[in-house]
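wait is this the right file?? whatever heres the structure
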């Protein structure tokens, strides 16, 4: 009996010690160290971010012969503290991007077969198509980003965004029409998009950034025709200052 009491007493003491250690650890929890865990330390302060980036990619499907490059700056603000459980836990950020350099490289002007339907008859006719290099600028004023809970140096995220592209010449290239006559596409195109990426924090105030975005380009029928670019995949690398 004495032996049983001894083991029972030992078990209760061990349980009390363990529960006390858990309580003490919770009470003694300290903020992440900017040196040991710069990503956690940076996002814990609900910071602003300002960065520069370069982006490039290709069209998909019937636009696989299109390539894109752009460069610009980003401004964002982490708005919320961490929310949601498990792997969804993270923080909401609102951001925007300005790209004073935006360029699309398309096939050179050429003749292309175009299907027609006239008085019940269908066929194909060769029409002059535009093409070449299109230069403009782009703005993405709406970026809704979810920053997942960071590790020591990595802070992954996903986002949805919407923007606008302006080019002096109607984009994408289409059937050429005489100047001043209706037809063609539009100098304004919208860019709904979604993407994933991550920040690699060098320290709590600096990060290198990588992203992959799927971008749709469409004039929303602002022009007489709206062939658009149904999908493009574009990759981004950048550098960000956090404050």
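ok assuming it is, sequence goes like this
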């Amino acid at each position: 009996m004495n032996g049983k009491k001894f083991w029972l007493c030992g078990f209760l003491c061990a349980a009390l010690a363990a529960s006390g250690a858990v309580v003490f650890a919770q009470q003694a929890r300290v903020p992440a160290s900017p040196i040991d865990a710069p990503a956690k330390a940076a996002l814990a302060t609900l910071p602003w971010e300002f960065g520069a980036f370069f982006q490039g990619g290709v069209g998909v499907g019937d636009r696989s012969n299109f390539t894109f490059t752009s460069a610009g700056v980003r401004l964002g603000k982490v708005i919320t503290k961490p929310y949601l459980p498990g792997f969804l836990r993270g923080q909401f950020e609102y951001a925007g991007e300005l790209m004073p350099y935006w360029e699309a490289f398309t096939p050179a002007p050429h003749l292309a077969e175009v299907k027609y339907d006239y008085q019940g008859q269908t066929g194909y006719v060769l029409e002059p198509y535009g093409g070449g290099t299109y230069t403009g600028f782009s703005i993405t004023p709406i970026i809704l980003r979810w920053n997942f809970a960071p590790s020591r140096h990595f802070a992954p995220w996903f986002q949805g965004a919407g923007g606008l592209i302006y080019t002096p010449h109607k984009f994408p290239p289409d059937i050429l029409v005489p100047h001043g006559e209706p037809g063609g596409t539009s100098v304004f195109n919208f860019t709904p998009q979604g993407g994933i990426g991550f920040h690699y924090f060098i320290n709590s105030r600096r990060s290198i950034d990588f992203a992959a975005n799927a971008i749709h380009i469409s004039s929303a029928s602002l022009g007489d025709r709206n062939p658009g670019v149904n999908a493009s995949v574009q990759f981004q690398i950048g550098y960000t200052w956090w404050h």
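Helices lie at 2-27, 38-43. so i think its the right one actually
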